[in-house]
Design a protein that fits this description.
alpha/beta, 3-stranded antiparallel sheet, elongated
Amino acid sequence: LGNRLFLCTQNVDNLHEQAGTRNAVHMHGELFKSRCESCTLPPFDDANTYEPSAALPRCECGARIRPHICWFGEAPYDVDQIYRALNECTLFVAIGTSGVVEPAASFASHARSRGRTFYVGPEEPANASAFTECFLGKAGELLPDLFRYE
């Protein structure tokens, strides 16, 4: 699919990247990156472990460094980019989501007006009515057959 695939994840781990994915959009941030809580310096890779008794690290601007994570109540990252992709989407696939957490829970409804929407996961999501089709089971078993080209 090349550049036609837009991968957005709510997960904060780096498992997509470990699997070889490039350009995944992490709407809830990335656990192995940090950023300044105040200035606009870009997030940076940070696999350091800090001693609980150590002073919190500081940015060159003097503000504290925090995990590059979207806490509850904060706006997710890259929402404009995500909605641009949804507006161009002809096939939307949600994998293993509860269908409860907003704004991601409304993505299927948004995409459905433009094309097909699939859910793949172990149990029916709360927003199942937003999907054209739901495929229940283990994603690792279902996905290869769902997207097999012959």
